[in-house]
Specification:
alpha+beta, 2 helices
Length: 113
């Protein structure tokens, strides 16, 4: 997929309507996969078990496209560039780098509490 869909978009996957509520870069089979965090529509989020992952490359139809605006579009483009750059790296190097960043963020947060 060349563009991410905005939050609030409704997609249909195997006759199930899902609403996009966020974005993920998941570690699957020793590679990174771009995707959407989704919930069933119209039920929405009920508990963590109601969250699902759908790859941006999965087969789905778009039932409704969420609201787009300049700031949101800029963020989506930046998110796509970040994802593409991570996927272009050697998998293990990228994984190690992301783990380092996460640790640094957690340590920084602990210092500010």
């Amino acid at each position: 997929m060349s563009e991410y869909l905005p939050v609030g978009s409704i997609i249909n996957v195997n006759d199930t309507k899902l609403m996009i509520i966020g974005y993920e870069l998941v570690d699957k089979d020793d590679k990174f996969v771009d995707g959407y965090t989704v919930v069933k529509y119209p039920m929405g989020y009920m508990k963590n078990e109601s969250l699902f992952f759908v790859s941006v490359d999965a087969e789905f139809s778009v039932e409704w496209q969420g609201y787009s605006y300049d700031d949101g579009n800029e963020w989506l483009e930046a998110n796509k560039r970040f994802s593409d750059s991570i996927k272009s790296l050697d998998y293990q190097d990228a994984k190690n780098h992301l783990e380092y960043i996460i640790t640094a963020i957690k340590e920084h947060g602990d210092k500010n509490e």
